[in-house]
Amino acid sequence: MNKESKEFAGELFRSLARKHNISGDSIDKAQLKQFWIQISDESFDSRLQTFFDMVDKDADGRITEEEVREIISLSASANKLSNIQKQADEYAALIMEELDPEKVGYIMVQNLETLLLQAPNQSVRITDSRILSQMLSQKLKPTQENNPLRRCYEKGKYFLMDNWQRVWVIMLWLGIVGGLFAYKFIQYRHKAAFDVMGYCVCVAKGGAETLKFNMALILLPVCRNTITWLRNKTKLGLAVPFDDNLNFHKVIAVGIAVGVGLHAGAHLTCDFPRLLHATEEEYEPMKPYFGEEQPQNYWWFVKGVEGVTGIIMVVLMAIAFTLATPWFRRNKLNLPGPLKKLTGFNAFWYSHHLFVIVYTLLIVHGIYLYLTKTWYQKTTWMYLAVPVGLYACERLIRAFRSSIKPVKMLKVAVYPGNVLALHMTKPQGFRYKSGQYMFVNCAAVSPFEWHPFSITSSPGDDYLSVHIRTLGDWTGQLKTVFSEVCQPSAAGKSGLLRADLQGGSNPVFPKILIDGPYGAPAQDYKKYEVVLLVGLGIGATPMVSIVKDIINNMQHNEEDYEAADPSSSHNNKNRTSKFRTRKAYYYWVTREQGSFDWFKGIMNEVAEMDEKGVIELHNYCTSVYEEGDARSALIAMLQSLHHAKNGVDVVSGTRVKSHFAKPNWRQVYKRIALQHPNARVGVFYCGAPAPIKELGKLASDFSHKTSTKFEFHKENF
């Protein structure tokens, strides 16, 4: 229990003690039972009386403005709502104004009951949930299957239905890798080397062939410009899961590790020892490859070009692979001070550049092959030529494009929760889709580091914007260098710190370079008539761009419709093909009240412009206890009163009313399934990995059990 909850519990104990005429700081078991009966009674009257007793500290049956202010402050503190705590005086005055119109200086329990009944009631939500469940159960397909074989068949069928794109790509890859291994294995099974080194040489050469293929293939999933072009300009996205490019990159890395183990392991532990111990007669066919004189020790193999290049490559790959694992890359290991630099994105980024050396050595290693003399049989360079050339061109394009398309900073703001918002000019010809991302470089922090961030502006805006949360060294330093040119925000302006080029202060911003845009899963939202957008914390960034884009597209469609001939079916068809989305559900879940400041202006803009209710906005603040909890009862009451009077939510500070605690995702899916039967719903998620499994499983379950098909997509960088 945290400090705020302890304070709240203390007030609750004192109010119950006053009610039961108990003095002192302790109670016996009988009194504890009485307390528990009252606290656990979920009826409205009981909750109301308990709450009133907490506020009415002098037990005179009346609540003064000072007592209201104190309980607002306590309740806000327990729910980590610092903004409400700062404005406790204002909100106390609001409640007294509403319930004490005659200004007698106090309110009674009857007045409080009237106000609380205006707030959303948890029992109503539970009733609605039950009705939803009953309605949905009537439409669910029967899922209970007693036959275990039938159950396995159904699971397998659903798995293939959900993952057929991934399955065929992985099967094709495994087929090619297996075929290459078998080809070399059989080839060396019929060579003279087999008589000396046996099946070990077959395994080593088979592993080497898979290594050549995988070392070439692993570059393709990180050719971002090529992938973005393919997903934007071709129909390959229907069959190829471009969203899984980084996952496939990791799968190939595992294949490389296996290939290295087979190739190096077979050579070092089997081939070389057998060659050293071969008889003169057995060694005779090996003289063209290893010399007239038979090697006498292990060092002979290690000191050669093949041995040196091979060992260096294994060491460098081991370093890069290790530092790329989630434990190192995401700082999950608690290493001592000097070793801290081995963790984090920087270690991953710079260690991956060791592969420049690895690929150079791989080509050299492929030229000085054991058991191969003719040039056309040395195929390493043939495998690598196209992928390495393509990847090199991509890196050159990035450097060239970022240098010829400079951006000028327009506005910078620092928000609560360590978030930095950068607004910059849009380079000429920079065309992007909502949901896409770009790389950002700041030479003042590091001239060589590029980091990806979702674009939060919409394609219709005349500027570019990104919102960056401080999570590591680079983002921390970026916030520091921009904070130095900022000033505290003026009244009416958002953010803790702010610098605006149009503000007259002429700030000198650090230079920013951008590279992009690059394709991302969320850019495909236009393929769906219904979309569910879920952002966790800073993961709301791509969703904000989509929400703005939906509004802009709906407005443009209406303008086109009014300007076009209504009788023309061709025009109607064009409008339909350009933009399909007709309904969007946006869920933003954050822990801190201050996070709502990040996109306050955008939320208000959407709420004002969305006259037809195309977008349902749902903000969730998880620091607030769920509805029905005594610690959040006053917040719910205050929220309803303030929103009804001023149209502004006390939690988010926007026109969008906030919910408490975490969303019930099953209920969210249920409601969408009922409201959109026979529809394809695109579910797009960006944020921490924790909810991915639940959201993906629910999408699969409801797709199989209802007529609504949910297609789940998550962001990968």
UniProtKB/TrEMBL annotation:
Primary localisation category: membrane
InterPro entries the UniProt entry points to: Cyt_b245_heavy_chain (IPR000778), EF-hand-dom_pair (IPR011992), EF_Hand_1_Ca_BS (IPR018247), EF_hand_dom (IPR002048), FAD-bd_8 (IPR013112), FAD-bd_FR_type (IPR017927), Fe3_Rdtase_TM_dom (IPR013130), Fe_red_NAD-bd_6 (IPR013121)
Entry's family note: Belongs to the RBOH (TC 5.B.1.3) family.
Secretion signal span: none
Domain FAD-binding FR-type, first and last residues per copy: 402-524
Localization annotation: Membrane
Domain EF-hand positions: 43-78
Keywords linked to the UniProt accession: Calcium, FAD, Flavoprotein, Membrane, Metal-binding, NADP, Oxidoreductase, Peroxidase, Transmembrane, Transmembrane helix
Protein name: Respiratory burst oxidase homolog protein D-like
Domain of life: Eukaryota
A GO CC annotation given for this chain: plasma membrane
Pfam families: FAD_binding_8 (PF08022), Ferric_reduct (PF01794), NAD_binding_6 (PF08030), NADPH_Ox (PF08414)
Topology of this chain in the membrane: Multi-pass membrane protein
GO MF annotations, alphabetized: calcium ion binding; NAD(P)H oxidase H2O2-forming activity; peroxidase activity
Annotated PROSITE patterns: EF_HAND_1 (PS00018), EF_HAND_2 (PS50222), FAD_FR (PS51384)
Transmembrane feature ranges: 167-186, 307-328, 349-369
Upper lineage: Eukaryota, Viridiplantae, Streptophyta, Embryophyta, Tracheophyta
